Amino acid sequence: MSGTTCSRLHRRLSPQGRGAHCAALLHPRRGVRSDRAPDPQDPRQQGLREAPRTGEAARVRKLFDISQAVSEETAVWPGDTPFSKDWVMRIADGMACNVSTIHMSVHCGTHTDAPYHFIEEAPKMAEVPLAPYLGPCRVVHVTPLGNPKRVPLTAFAGLERGERVLFRTVTDLDPAQFDEAFCSLGLAAAQHACELGLALVGLDTPSMDCFTSKTMESHKCLLEGGVAILENLDLSQVPAGRYELIALPLKLVGVDSSPVRAVLRELD
Known about the structure:
- There is one protein chain.
- The radius of gyration is 22 Å and the shape is globular.
- The chain contains four helices and eleven strands.
- With 268 residues, it is of the alpha/beta class.
- The protein has a domain at 111-266: Putative cyclase (Glucose Oxidase, domain 1, 3-Layer(bba) Sandwich).
């Protein structure tokens, strides 16, 4: 519902009417989860129910939220636009609903980069294939090497063509602090990822290139090589191993990057 529609609705309804209308909006409807048993004859519900699981498959697969929380305290790259929020309408002010507006860089928090971020004629965010952001994935714990710190090539051991890999480089992540000495991927590792034909590489730090880089060669190598990127992940609570990755970007038209809500799910 748009802010204008909500405001008109507020003016049209009396306090009693507003209460009844809200109750109606919150009442369980078709297509919305409720306590009612599904109707097997309703074609709109066909194919929406997962087949019952038994035995080992019946266990609940654990989810790991690997996204950084986004707030006014979230650190951004120096000079970039931090998160801010404004209220258009508030229930506390007598309006019928809460409506907020946010303003931030598309690189704030956990995000992905489209090739257009560094390559002028390359695909923008809404044109990027979604397949790399959804599927089997490995989490690898690494000890950064060198100065500036980089992911060692040994971290790629055992990875095969088409795989997704997320590198955990820190265990004490603080999204409110921007550490200029963060671990980057580095050009050698980026080239190796392309040679392996990986689908996606992710880091728990702000960039594939070190803070002082002027050429952003690691980004360019990955994006030109068809390897998707995830940055600013929170892998601090995730054991090394194999998972299912779900980290879809928004369908933002004409932009260079997008926030993602990234999660890992245990495999059966």
